[in-house]
Amino acid sequence: MTKIYRSFSEPDRQNLTWEETWRKEDKGLIKNYEVGRALAIKEPELAEKAKRGELPVLGYKGGIDKALKKKEKIGALNYIAKWQALRGEDLNIDMNEEVVLTCTKTKMIVTFTMDLEKLKNAN
């Protein structure tokens, strides 16, 4: 696995096959980033939440709508790709590293990973 970087100013890729989108070395992170950029335009209030450091629900494990009893959870790096785009940041993910963020709204701690076993066993 590797480091995935894409500038916010780079245009979306066009006419990719399913294999090119989801099976290449980035495992769909760039596609999630592109979806996140479109989402930021379509739902500016969601983008504002992300810019405030909140971790809103985005269709991948990692988003939080309310605090849970257990203060820690596991999330997918795919979530981080969307979240970085919502924030207007460049895509910058090391697929070998886990990212730990604390939601500013709920104070929940989320560890984002590409480890499918951890994601599969997460609640």
The gist of it:
By secondary structure, the chain is an alpha+beta fold. It has helices at residues 18-22, 29-42, 44-51, 77-86, 116-121; strands at 3-6, 72-76, 91-94, 99-102, 109-113.
Structure report:
The chain is α+β, with helices and mostly antiparallel strands. 35% of the residues lie in helices and 18% in strands. It has helices spanning 18-22, 29-42, 44-51, 77-86, 116-121; strands at 3-6, 72-76, 91-94, 99-102, 109-113. The strands form two sheets. It has a three-stranded mixed sheet. Strands 1-3 form a two-stranded antiparallel ribbon.
Write the layout of secondary structure elements.
Blueprint: E1 3-6, H1 18-22, H2 29-42, H3 44-51, E2 72-76, H4 77-86, E3 91-94, E4 99-102, E5 109-113, H5 116-121
Helix pairs in contact: 2-3, 2-4
